[in-house]
Design a protein that fits this description.
alpha/beta, Glutaredoxin, four-stranded mixed sheet, two-stranded antiparallel ribbon, 3 helices, 10 strands, binds glutathione
Length: about 180
């Protein structure tokens, strides 16, 4: 896997980045925002505003997609699955590409969203990642942060204000 360094995609083997004991130095996520209720929130919960990027092969992304389904957030948080291409630049949308929500940008690689959000960022490019179509930024690229936000959905004033679909959604069972 490559990574972004100062906004440019680099393909050097990042496993060579280790300390004296041979421990791999794993760069943390640079996108650590929160989707929260309330107009004052940096990323307020709003219908149709957020988009989730995942990959079926990734267990962390799988957790995020599970929570999205269990919390019935599909109508509110749209989803695109990316994949890997041999010789590619990390997570890919394939030859057909992808129109970045909230922009007219047609991209092929997930890392291109990161540099729309922050043109000079230095970071690994991981799934799951959430995109905010309104501010054209990435609130979060860590599954635990996302899952905690999804988990809080509907749990009162501190939770997300995404509303349940009006018809047939709250029929018992998993919520
Ligand atoms: N700490 C991240 C880990 C996610 C992660 O590492 N995902 C892998 C796929 S399973 C990935 O995108 N790796 C790309 C890379 O590390 O460059 C999270 O909690 O979401």
């Amino acid at each position: 896997m490559g990574q972004l360094v100062d906004g440019k995609w680099r393909t050097e083997n990042i496993l060579v980045q280790h300390d004296d004991k041979g421990l791999y130095f794993k760069r943390g996520s640079v996108f650590r925002g929160r989707i929260e209720s309330g107009a004052a929130a940096e990323f307020p919960a709003e219908r149709g505003r957020y988009h989730l990027y995942c990959a079926v092969a990734c267990p962390w992304a799988h957790r995020a997609t599970l929570m999205r389904t269990l919390k019935r957030l599909e109508p509110f948080v749209t989803l695109t699955n990316t994949f890997q291409e041999t010789g590619g630049q990390g997570w890919s949308f394939g030859e057909q590409g992808h129109i970045v929500p909230g922009t007219d940008r047609h991209v092929r690689w997930l890392h291109e969203l990161y540099t729309i959000a922050d043109p000079a960022c230095t970071t690994r490019v991981t799934v799951p990642t959430v995109w905010d179509a309104k501010t054209r930024r990435c609130p979060s690229s860590g599954n635990l942060r996302l899952i905690r936000r999804f988990e809080k959905r509907g749990s009162g004033s501190s939770g997300l204000e995404f509303r349940r679909p009006a018809v047939g959604a709250a029929s018992g069972g998993l919520r």
